[in-house]
Write a structure and sequence with these properties.
Largest sheet: none
Number of helices: 4
Mean pLDDT: 80
Helix content: over 70%
Structural class: mainly alpha
Order of helices and strands: HHHH
Shape: rod-shaped
Length: 110
Amino acid sequence: MSRLLRLERVLEAVLFGSRWLLAPFCLGLAISLIVLLCNFAWATVDLFLHGIQGSQDHLIIAVLGLIDVSLMANLVLIVILPATRTSSAAWTSTTTRIARRGWGMLGSAS
């Protein structure tokens, strides 16, 4: 029984430690959010500078491009938030959890 308990603790430690493998992915996705923000700003400036002079087709394409970048940024956030919450859930203190209570309900009405 003691050997089984040791094996269980080692397995738990390995699984808990493997959560840190998500950190580089989350960091890369956070950097991609910055790139998407720059792309969105550039496209917005381009829309204001050339949208008045361009045709209606150009305006529609530019607005759809802004929507596309916005949706991509939202998708990245949808991936990052649960991943960081999962990887940090076990080691956050109770007071930190209380401070972050509303984070899990970003899309809900409550």
